[in-house]
């Protein structure tokens, strides 16, 4: 009978890539020295979707996972969903997008104008960022909408830009 620990590292890393970083961290970190090495392997591409995390788990992500795994994070979703708390503001307070040099896809939900302008300045330095998804109903002023749209369109490395500014009546 085989055990998970017996699988080659490449297979384990492929399994990790199908999991959310929170699950990889919770399940495999501190299991064995070998798993710790794999969790931090620079070839690992992790997905992070914080939109459903509670505040304490999100704070833990910002303070520890982001610092330790930021070079492995390939896809990141942050949400200011009004049912929760301002994740994007908290993220920008605790860290910077500049540290996420392997980031390929970024999704920001319910981002406000100030956060968006700060983010657009930081992500210009991300050479791997290819997909940017913005979904918000938090920007109302026509000038702010124009400035935000211009800042988003002025991202030289972005190949896929998905902007959804909800219409307010």
From TrEMBL:
<feature type="domain" description="F-box">
    <location>
        <begin position="1"/>
        <end position="48"/>
    </location>
</feature>
<dbReference type="InterPro" id="IPR001810">
    <property type="entry name" value="F-box_dom"/>
</dbReference>
<protein>
    <recommendedName>
        <fullName>F-box domain-containing protein</fullName>
    </recommendedName>
</protein>
């Amino acid at each position: 009978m085989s055990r998970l620990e017996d699988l080659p590292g490449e297979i384990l890393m492929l399994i990790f890539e199908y999991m959310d970083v929170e699950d990889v961290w919770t399940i495999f970190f501190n299991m064995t020295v070998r798993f710790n090495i794999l969790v931090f392997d620079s070839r690992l591409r992790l997905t992070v979707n914080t939109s459903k995390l509670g505040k304490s788990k999100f704070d833990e992500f910002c303070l520890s996972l982001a610092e330790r795994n930021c070079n492995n994070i390939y896809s990141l979703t942050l949400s200011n969903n009004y049912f929760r708390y301002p994740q994007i503001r908290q993220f920008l307070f605790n860290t910077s997008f500049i540290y996420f040099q392997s980031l390929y896809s970024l999704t920001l939900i319910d981002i406000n104008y100030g956060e968006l302008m700060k983010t657009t300045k930081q992500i210009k330095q991300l050479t791997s960022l290819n997909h940017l998804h913005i979904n918000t109903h938090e920007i109302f002023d026509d000038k702010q909408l124009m400035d935000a749209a211009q800042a988003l369109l002025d991202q030289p490395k972005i190949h896929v830009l998905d902007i959804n500014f909800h219409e307010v009546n």
